[in-house]
Amino acid sequence: MTLTSPADVLDQTGLVDPMQPMLVRIAQVTRDTSDTSTIITEPLDGGSLPGFLPGQFSMLYEFGVGEIPISISSDPNVTNRLNYTIRSVGAVTKALIGHRAGDSIAMRGPFGSSWPMETAQGGDVLLIAGGIGLAPLRPVIYEILAHRSDYGRLVILYGARSPKDLLFRKELADWAKLPDTQVLTTVDYGERNWRGYVGVVTKLFGFVSLRPERTTTMMCGPEIMMRFAIRGLQGRKFPDDRVYLSMERNMKCAVGFCGHCQMGPYFICKDGPVFSYPQMRHWMGDLREL
Amino acid sequence: MIAINDFIKTTSEHSLLEGFAPRDLERLAALAREVRFPRNQIIFHEGEKHGLFYLILNGSVSLEMTAAGHGVFLQTLHGGDAMGWSSLVDPKGGAHFEARVLAPVRALAFDGAALRESCESDPAFGYRMMKALLTLVTDRLDASRMQLVDMYAAEPGAVRT
Question: Which domain holds residue A177?
């Protein structure tokens, strides 16, 4: 269906007005790495925050600076709190993670498509994350852990630039101890005291045991990493139609009107950010960000 | 030298030897010896002319080099990987990296000069060996390019400095 007016969007999303931000209070800011922090938001004055599905994002508005899309990194089963893990790469992100508890920001959303949690049920789940790409996959992990018997093996492969750039280290260690769960991390550059893997994330494929035909793969990270990972999955006979990825483009309106995030026939904000690989196959690597 | 049956059993899951004919494996078995290294042992130092080519059977090894006065940890190798391939193609050169054991290693070691001679005396075997090595080197090159791209950086694509 083609959305032709804001009224269509209201019907589709069920939001009062997708362009109208709501004020939220920052309950806490936790530092994850030298350039990345997680802000935990809560409703203002007894109000409520909308729920979300794993993989969705919000538009966060920093007064007087600008608005940006940020994936939600919290547990979808926890109501009235939305976490955003933000890397400081520009004026808005820097301002957002510079806040203190009690400050207010504005938020629109959540928007976008979600990870295929229902499709994944009954089979194994392979998560491949690179850098800050672990943040949009974290709600998937929480969701699986909350409904553990609905899923088979959970394998998390995570690559980062260096050991100090790994996100959620304590949680990674905790998840690694769970039954039927395997967590492997690798970095591009190690230090002498690093005892983990060094090399590309696809190298980790050799250390996991999964049933390709029964595995749903979800990945989020730099596109070059995802292209390499897809090549590695294909070499191991993982079916393309069970591979999903989260795409990132310059989203502005978040409802498919402005066209900033158009990629081929898709608007990343409205049709994505989560796509199946067959949807993206033709476009990945062919188009640079506009 | 390792008995051919033991060699086949030991290397059956080693990707580098996939597609090698029984005759090739016999030739390799005649040149191989099994070696073991405990944790933290340096297998070879950067620049050392050790002259050995290794197929890692299990365990893990870090490849490191010294840059700007400190050690940089470039890659980890595991069962199914190979190292010391420069001893096959550049007998006068030294190791490009330091190889240090992270988890106890069991490997097959081949004298680089003898293996090279074997490749030269039987070009068909030599071709298969070099093809396998080229696959290995291509994988390493891809991995190095990915590191060079620095894809997790705030501005990926800028060459790392």
Answer: 117-280
